[in-house]
Amino acid sequence: xxxxxxxxxxxxxxxxxxxxxxxxxxxxxxxxxxxxxxxxxxxxxxxxxxxxxxxxxxxxxxxxxxxxxxxxxxxxxxxxxxxxxxxxxxxxxxxxxx
Length: 98
Hints:
Keywords: Secreted, Self-incompatibility, Signal. The protein is mostly beta strands.
């Protein structure tokens, strides 16, 4: 079962994108440029307050060849990422107690 509201907070070393509350089927995106010398990294923290569940993951890592373009929340299972072609990328990040 999908959570009704997930709080998402994403940031990098230089940019804090703030927190947003997303409801079922909502989408959240942003754009940015890569560092010419590498090292661009955005990470996100997700929280389901009613269930006291949290999840931390690297949303984008320039130095990782997996290049995830879309992350999806899958209820109790956690999240999964897909590449530009829609193929699964990496492992599922799992929820933990906050």
